[in-house]
Amino acid sequence: MVEEESVRVVRCGGSELNFRRAVFSADSKYIFCVSGDFVKVYSTATEECVHILQGHRNLVTGIQLNPNNHLQLYSCSFDGTIKLWDYIDGILIKTFIVGHKLHAFFAHAHAEDSVFVIIKKEKPDAFQLVSVKLPKSTSQEIEAEELSLVLDYINQSPKCIAFGNEGEYVAAVRDFYLSVYFFKKKKTSRFTLSSSRNRKHAKNNFTCVACHPKEDCIATGHEDGKIRLWRNFDDDKKYTYTCLHWHHDMVMDLAFSVTGTSLLSGGRESVLVEWRDAAEKNKEFLPRLGATIEHISVSPAGDLFCTSHSDNKIIVIHRNLEASAVIQGLVKDSSILTGLMIDPRTKALVLNGKPGHLQFYSLQSDKQLYNLDIVQQEYINDYGLIQIELTKAAFGCHGNWLATVEQRQEKKTELELQMKLWTYSKKTQGFILNTKVNMPHEDHITALCFCNAENSENPTLVTASRDGHFKVWILTDDSDIYKKAVGWTCDFVGSYHKYQATNCCFSEDGSLLAVSFEEIVTIWDSETWELKCTFCQRAGNIRHLCFGRLTCSKYLLGATENGILCCWNLLSCALEWSAKLNIRVMEPDPNSENVAAVSKSSVGSDLFVFKPSEPRPLYIQKNICREEVQWGVFVPRDVPESFTSEAYQWLNRSQFYFLTKSQSLLTFSTKSPEEKLTPTSKQLLAEESLPTTPFYFILGKHRQQQDEKSNETLENELVQLPLTENIPAISELLHTPAHVLPSASFLCSMFVSSLLLSKETKSAEEIPDDIDMEEEKESHSSGEENDFTEKVEDINNADLGEDIVQQLSKSEEKELRKFRKIDYSWITAL
Amino acid sequence: MGEFKVHRVRFFNYVPSGIRCVAYNNQSNRLAVSRTDGTVEIYNLSANYFQEKFFPGHESRATEALCWAKGQRLFSAGLNGEIIEYDLQALNIKYSMDAFGGPIWSMAASPTGSQLLVGCEDGSVKLFQIIPDKIQFERNFDRQKSRVLSLSWHPSGTHIAAGSIDYISVFDVKSGSTIHKMLVDRQYMGVSKRKCIIWGVAFLSDGTVVSVDSAGKVQFWDSATGTLMKSHLIANADVQSIAVSDQEDSIVVGTAEGTVFHFQLVSVTSNSSEKQWVRTKPFQHHTHDVRTVAHSPTALISGGTDTHLVIRPLMEKVEVKNYDAALRKITFPHRRLISCSKKKQLLLFQFSHHLDLWRLGSTVATGKHGDTLPLSKDADHLLHLKTKGPENIICSCISPCGSWIAYSTASRFFLCRLHYENDNISLQRISKMPAFLRSAVQILFSEDSTKLFVASNQGSLHVIRLLEGSFKHLHTFQAQSGTVESMCLLAVSPDGSWLAASGTSAGVHVYSLKRLKLHCTVPAYNFPVTAMAIAPNTNNLVIAHSDQQVFEYSIPDKQYTEWSRTVQKQGFHHLWLQRDTPITHISFHPKRPMHILLHDAYMFCIIDKSLPLPNDKTLLYNPLPPTNESDVIRRRTAHAFKISKIYKPLLFMDLLDERTLVAVERPLDDIIAQLPPPIKKKKFGT
């Protein structure tokens, strides 16, 4: 396995959950949402991700339940395929190859074996709604090429298309008109709103459309916040509409409830509005949803709504307008100013989240852990308003301290600046504001760093600013007669010839501080705050500055704006080497000497990994992505990998994550695609994450106690019979649907042998292996790969042969997994 | 066009009264409008919404209900407890009859138009039979507990719905007994209001009763079971009026917030016959309470406290896009309220109960085009003449010499002599008016102020010679045989030899004052005359009609002039015909015989007969050409119509002398400022 490894760039979580409307399952137990190339299945009760449906090779652009079988889900993607899934087991049932790039998907029960997709014509900005006939065939991959045009020149967004009255008509909106196509009459009616440039009608354009489920009524949302309810639209002359106006900004999405008695609307106000009986006066609100509502969907059972928000969040809402669950992905709403950081405690990725917040995002579970409100002011959601921005943040002292800087600049001369220092409270398990410094500097703060030396007795923070100063802040005793307290005060102010301070950095042991003043790097003694020496290369302003680590701690690295990377030896106070490299990101690995640098070239970004001691890079990967890389960070691994290959050794201790300009979070992975199977653990999770019923409380608990008791008794008897639940083979057997299982005779021997007690207790070697494997699994589930390829069965077979002999349970697992693979062809052959 | 010094008068603080009721008559396509001061106006919707007739108001006659009955008969009822029938020919009240039920709040004519139903303060609903020339009390219906505020007949005439306070009752007409009592919820969004007043009901032929109430609801009731079917909460304030179209597919309601809502009967799905009432469009053309609405086949008509009459056409019902398809807002009466004494530079303003006499200011300064000149002497309020009695003034006039004022109410004619002694003014009432001079529809003085012409409401025209402090009746031109139609407009030639008079429908009659007999009759035209005047020297009669046509008729030749024929042949510019206010005044320039000066509420125009007429391609409203432009271009673009839109709304404009104009404006904002404050509505973003 090790020999086959190759490092590839993979997308790792954090993809947009709010790209399309989420879809509920028929029983409202699950909610589906598109997430990059995958479809994620969440439980509405527990907010857990139950399945990830992977198979598309490009962005998934539409999902909908199969109207003829509510246990199946259709999805379409930019890769030109429509896939049909069994979402309960997470199995791909069929793939229909259409060939065009598919932008949206619609299906309804009354169009037999036809579905509707939006495709793009040759002309730019001209999209078509076409119906695709899905041929009936037993094979797994079917070409569906029978396309027929329904509506031309439509908006690409699926929000602008709606099917009404059991598929009798389809309504599409674009710009200033609404077109309705009647399938029976094969006639299109078009209604145009006045689009004159005057103030009153300038924002009349349509933004979204929804059709009443029972009546001939179309609701359209508009940019000026109006909702129009159209009726009589089968008559070109007698058509009429009603206006509902509450939103002051664009209506982002509309949805009718299942019975059609109420209409839901949402927009930038972050308020879900329920219009009852389509009456202007009879409306209910669910306010303070946090961010712009982008999509609204309604469960087929009618008991739940859900809203997708611009901060990559899905809120599941009860019929009585109470939010019941929140599925929060990586917030990508705002621009990332703080960069990527790792919280030393939780190992979570920390970056800008919602406006004025810092988000803690778990890379392992692709889930937001929590939000820290830094600005602590009501966010007013209005276009053109200058907000307080969180610009800098840094962790110090093993995560005990957090420093943040926020700024707001309305005019050039009016800068509002605030630095906050937060302490970690063990009691509340969160950060508490300790010190607030108003205007710590006269001008923008350009850098912020803690002294993270192991033995430093006093926490120290350095801020560098464009006003030409750097300030050293230390923690001092702030106790008074009322309480014991500590606070931060300024200890030292340094400057160098009135140059702007651009970067600052502490050496690993904390003895030296490097501050760059435009083109010059100054080295200060952190004990006495004396200027020790200066380096100047005259190669442009210093953009990045960092000390080497471990064996390379005598080196200082600096990257300049003119594309020069310099390495100075601090002992000789001389330039050790320099290289021409236009560096955008430079990140030292905290666990090794390695430094990763990402440079920008004309075609994309290149990665270089090197040790400061030698100018020759350890590893080069050209063109890691097409866009500019904005930020990068090394995330220490919990369990080190053991790459033998020289080139990948830098990935042993830490993993490198980076964020591109379009805010996709990428990383390097060596996992081969076949390892990225849906892990069984996750499937079991599906079962576990189901809500506990009252029945469970009566019987289940009781049973658990019994189990425990029996466990105890068993231990006493020193005969350790494995519980059936704990043997993977058995649970696998029990959880695999019966119709895909091979014949019982085939399974029997394996099943029996699994029940046998092995002679020796678990071997010492096995334990780390297991952990390893689990670890792997975990990272597969989180590390969603960009270019997932179909599984190669041969390899699996080869692996299997060896494994059966050694590890029974593990091999069985694989065996079963293989059967599962086989069963597709096996069924279709019937 | 020439340059003029313009007196821009803005001190005529006229406020029209609020509209209380409107009633639409489908057969004649006429609209009766009653105002809060008791005035009733008749608009002819076919004649470009011209206000044809009006009945002066009366202080004690607050109209609460207005309806048309069979044979174009108009009835009104009010808080004085009387039912009044109007004589639409003679423009006076035919009779009034006490209903003996206290103040009358509502009235409805039966679908056949032969019966009249009134709802009274004491809770009684009374049925009257309409017989020729009279109405006759027939019987009382079951007495209700409180006043009956609204009434509606079932289209078959068998049942009626009556809205009272807190409930609606349904009566059987035959027995006169209550079948159902439908209680209306007092609750308003959880807040209990004191009482829920049913401001209006409408009975539809399928048995549905639609009610509007003070809680802001429009409710649909099933009259067979007496149950509520659907409720629409549309306003935070009262919904005050309701009207249903004849096809019963559309309902219009007006609210106290000034919004008019339209409800339409819409099929639920395209392939089912099930229909439902849906609130469709709101119209916000009013600032104050919409007290009344009406539904014509093609338009929604609404009126209220803000004194505008709004006619909003329904686009889906309008066949061709002519001026019927445009929104109309009628604010000012289509008759002159101002007369002017050119010699003394006096303006006489007519209000409902008093007259104001003002002397115009003067200036010695000169300036460039467009300059505002400073006044050396301010305008002077000379006289405030109050009428006695409750009746409104019908018409008034000041003589050109400024020494006579004549005015009339519905029952009395007044003539006053003014004496000027330096800055003092004294008024002498001429008493002992003759019996035949009881009420005038129109008054006019001759140019030399020696004769007074009075059009009485019996259709006769009186000529009176004015002497120093007394008068002498000269002649009476009797109405044409068989007609009693009053003459609404008078015009006298400046040389005093011709008198033209026009009624509401018949043509214009020209009388010779020298021979005291009818000289000729101008050929009849389909549309009523809105203004006319006789030109000096040529004695050409210029007539403006409500369809915006202008004719010139030569009185000596008894035929249309050559210019008028050319105009008719070529036709007017389409924009000229699309103007929506009638021409209310025509005058002439003493030195430029080719010029005709005329104005409506939004423009002032000089027609230069010597210039070519504009065709549809030329610009009608050309701005004043800049002076530095070459003469060639100016001549090429010049056409007969010189239009100025600087002054609006323009109530009166006349030539004082060769170089001076007087323009009386009444800005709408000033009117709104004098109205009671509207219901305060939260406006987003304020």
From TrEMBL, chain A:
WD repeat residue intervals: 53-95
Keyword annotations from UniProtKB, A to Z: Isopeptide bond, Nucleus, Phosphoprotein, Repeat, Ribosome biogenesis, rRNA processing, Transcription, Transcription regulation, Ubl conjugation, WD repeat
Keyword Cell division: no
Annotated signal sequence range: none
Main location: nucleus
Alphabetized Gene3D superfamilies for the sequence: YVTN repeat-like/Quinoprotein amine dehydrogenase (2.130.10.10)
Extent of Basic and acidic residues compositional bias: 777-794
Subcellular location, record wording: Nucleus, Nucleolus
Annotated GO CC locations: small-subunit processome
One MF annotation (Gene Ontology) recorded for this entry: RNA binding
Composition skew (Acidic residues), residue ranges: 766-776
Residue ranges of the region described as Disordered: 763-795
Domain WD repeat-containing protein 75 second beta-propeller: 340-663
GO biological process, one term: positive regulation of rRNA processing
Described purpose of this protein according to its UniProt entry: Ribosome biogenesis factor. Part of the small subunit (SSU) processome, first precursor of the small eukaryotic ribosomal subunit. During the assembly of the SSU processome in the nucleolus, many ribosome biogenesis factors, an RNA chaperone and ribosomal proteins associate with the nascent pre-rRNA and work in concert to generate RNA folding, modifications, rearrangements and cleavage as well as targeted degradation of pre-ribosomal RNA by the RNA exosome. Involved in nucleolar processing of pre-18S ribosomal RNA. Required for optimal pre-ribosomal RNA transcription by RNA polymerase I.
Subunit comment: Component of the proposed t-UTP subcomplex of the ribosomal small subunit (SSU) processome. SSU processome is composed of more than 70 proteins and the RNA chaperone small nucleolar RNA (snoRNA) U3.
Name under which the protein is recorded: WD repeat-containing protein 75
Provenance organism: Phyllostomus discolor (pale spear-nosed bat)
Gene: WDR75
UniProtKB/TrEMBL annotation, chain B:
Gene this chain is encoded by: UTP4
Subunit-level organization: Interacts with HIVEP1 Interacts with NOL11. Part of the small subunit (SSU) processome, composed of more than 70 proteins and the RNA chaperone small nucleolar RNA (snoRNA) U3. May be a component of the proposed t-UTP subcomplex of the ribosomal small subunit (SSU) processome containing at least UTP4, WDR43, HEATR1, UTP15, WDR75.
Chain segments annotated as transmembrane: none
Cellular component, GO, one term: 90S preribosome
A GO term for molecular function: RNA binding
Top-level division of the source organism's lineage: Eukaryota
Name of the protein described by the UniProt record: U3 small nucleolar RNA-associated protein 4 homolog
InterPro entries noted in UniProt: UTP4, WD40/YVTN_repeat-like_dom_sf, WD40_repeat_dom_sf, WD40_rpt
Entry function: Ribosome biogenesis factor. Involved in nucleolar processing of pre-18S ribosomal RNA. Part of the small subunit (SSU) processome, first precursor of the small eukaryotic ribosomal subunit. During the assembly of the SSU processome in the nucleolus, many ribosome biogenesis factors, an RNA chaperone and ribosomal proteins associate with the nascent pre-rRNA and work in concert to generate RNA folding, modifications, rearrangements and cleavage as well as targeted d Involved in SSU pre-rRNA processing at sites A', A0, 1 and 2b.
UniProt KW keywords: Chromosome, Isopeptide bond, Nucleus, Phosphoprotein, Repeat, Ribosome biogenesis, rRNA processing, Transcription, Transcription regulation, Ubl conjugation, WD repeat
Annotated localization: Chromosome; Nucleus, Nucleolus
GO terms of biological process kind: maturation of SSU-rRNA from tricistronic rRNA transcript (SSU-rRNA, 5.8S rRNA, LSU-rRNA)
